[in-house]
Design brief:
By secondary structure, the chain is mainly beta. It starts with a helix and ends in a 22-residue tail after the last strand. It comes from Thioalkalivibrio halophilus. Keywords: Signal. InterPro entries: OMP_Slp. One of its GO terms (cellular component) is outer membrane.
Length: about 160
């Protein structure tokens, strides 16, 4: 087998394995996806939801941590921050989440039931936040999300001094 054929086979194998990679959260089933901004106190989703976005605020209570999240659509399970936002929501998590890790600007995805709608404020404006009780929570790595639908190949030479 030539070197080019081996390289092509290695690339194809890597793509197949990447396509089979496990997602970080177990998807709720059956899911009736509802955008956070579409939830009202009179129309709470009847099934667990999977929502994600960027942490805007963190509030630590005695037994829970509440994350205020700017919602974005998900690609797979990862928030697509380049898309238009879908409103805001709150995620209630049992226990303490370290504010160094769970800080504004970090991306998260959570699953669980939407249990209420709370009134709060964003600056001077009143806002109604759907509340998701987290059964699962995933904190995404720091850095820009991967570009959607792009595959990059390259050959490089490294020199260490």
């Amino acid at each position: 087998m030539s070197g080019v054929a081996r390289a092509l086979l290695a690339v194809l194998l890597a793509l197949v394995l990447a396509g089979c990679a496990a997602t970080p959260l177990e998807a709720p089933r059956p899911a009736e996806p509802v955008e956070p901004r579409a939830v009202t106190a009179e129309r709470l989703p009847q099934t667990d939801q999977m929502w994600g976005g960027v942490i805007a605020e963190v509030d630590h209570g005695p037994e829970t941590t509440v994350l205020e999240v700017l919602a974005y659509p998900l690609r797979g399970q990862e928030p697509r921050t380049g898309a238009a936002s879908q409103g805001r929501f709150r995620v209630v998590v049992d226990g303490f989440l370290d504010p160094v890790d769970y800080r504004p600007g970090r991306r998260v995805t959570a699953t669980g039931p939407v249990t209420a709608v709370e009134t709060g404020r964003i600056g001077e404006a009143e806002y109604r936040f759907p509340v998701l009780e987290a059964r699962q929570l995933h904190l995404w790595p720091v850095g820009a999300p991967s570009a959607p639908g792009r595959v990059n190949f390259g050959i490089g030479i490294g020199i260490g001094l």
